[in-house]
Amino acid sequence: MNNFEAVLFDLDGTLVDFQWDLDEAIPEICAILSDAGMDMARYGDPPSYVSLFNLTRDITDQWINRGALEDARKLLAKLDDVYNRYDQDAMKRWQPYPDTRSTLTRLVKEGFRLGVVSNCGREAVHGILARFNLIDFFEIILSRQDMSRLKPHPESLGLALKTLSLSPEKVLFVGDSINDILAADNTGMAACFLSCGESRITGLSATLNVNHISRLSDLLKIL
After folding, report:
1. Taking a C-beta distance cutoff of 8 angstroms, is the pair 208, 191 a contact?
2. What count of Cα atoms within 13 Å lies in the side-chain half-sphere of residue 43?
3. Of the candidates 51, 131, 192, 208, which lies 20 to 30 Å from 179 by C-alpha distance?
């Protein structure tokens, strides 16, 4: 018997269909980092948009510690511009899944506290939830600007737990990517993997505390 009191959701690929254009965004980000003198081999082959963000934050933190604050600010501002632009591009095409509203409505009726924890930027997250009249379902909404590291880093989910004043075992996180599932695991909470979003196969160990669903409404069967 689950004792969940809250359900947290990723946004892109979980509540709305996945539309971030990674094939164009990643080369553009890599070009900026390469021009800044970064060793691109450190980012992996191929690099992911999460590794590009998180590792660059690690590196620029080192710059700041050495007194190069302005250089760090300029580089991070350039990256923010790219991430925000691709958020806005995705926002033009985002549509809620057909069962998003009905699923959220049922969860609220059953007494669950709901939240969104997304790697997307604040303007896009709040904007799309408001556009489709979904924003009032959520007690907490966290975006890229609310964290220094993206999922799978546990920072954002840890902040959500602190804000909700709940322990990890009281919360289920629903996401569509390996990064979502690993973020939940890194935070000590159970996860639910939605297979119709960014990732088709998790490739995760069966030892992780993760459920699998193929559509959002199937979430009601495991709560």
Report:
1. yes
2. 24
3. 131
User: Which one-letter DSSP state was computed for residue 188?
Assistant: T
How many other CB atoms are there within 10 angstroms of residue 149's CB atom?
Answer: 18
Token pair of 52 as six digits: 């590009």
> How do residues 118-129 score in pLDDT, each as one tens digit?
999 999 999 999
Nearest CA to 95 out of 200, 21, 22, 14 is that of 14
Local confidence band at 197 (pLDDT 50, 70, 90 cut-offs): low
Report the first-to-last Cα separation within the chain, whole angstroms: 8
Integer Rg of the chain from CA: 18
CB 106 within 8 A of CB 35: no
Predicted pLDDT of residue 2: 75
